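Researcher: Structure prediction, please.
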Amino acid sequence: MRGRARRRVAALAGAAVLTAGGVLGAGLAQSDDHSGDQVPVRVATGPGGAPVDSGAAAARLSDDALLKGAPWLDQSMGSPSIRSVRALPSLVFPAGTTYDDAITALYESVRSTGALPTSATLGPALPKDIVFAVSRDGSRLSLTAPYGYDVGTGNILMPSLAFPPSMSADDVDAALRDAAARGRAVPAGARVAGNALDACQMLRDGHRVATCETAGGAR
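Model: Predicted structure follows.
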């Protein structure tokens, strides 16, 4: 994990948050962690609590054959293992697109429109243990687990919004409510956060630089 400074981690209690009408389940559960420099708030973006800006976007999301069953969107039955899900296509972004750029584009588009970002095209699935691939031809983001997965357990992660550690729980709650009222995908002061990818979760110019050692294998 990145960073050694001890910091507070806030996770939203409940799955449905940031709906068009306001914030649901806004209570914050706090714990301690040693990684990163911002406070992540787990945000569900799936059917039944989709943080989208309009009814039309929510309907589009629930009707999308690719997105509605994506394991990083709806985890009402728990976080599935990367080993147990089918591989989904990848999103192909222009060359030079970073991982942070890609996951932000995906989050903002799904939240705002209920659809994939127009800045990317669909491409072949990556190996299931690969989250992001970079090459001179473009950057590819896995739609199987775009926000990463826990290498040890294989559990797929949902998107997070990360806030500066200087913000209190009340400040985070206020920022979430303000974003919902304004129809903003990402609250002021926050960024879309994925898991800090291990080298084994990436491809560079089509080549692996490491292999993920998950129980039972990820591929």
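Model: The radius of gyration is 17 Å.
Researcher: Thanks, that helps.
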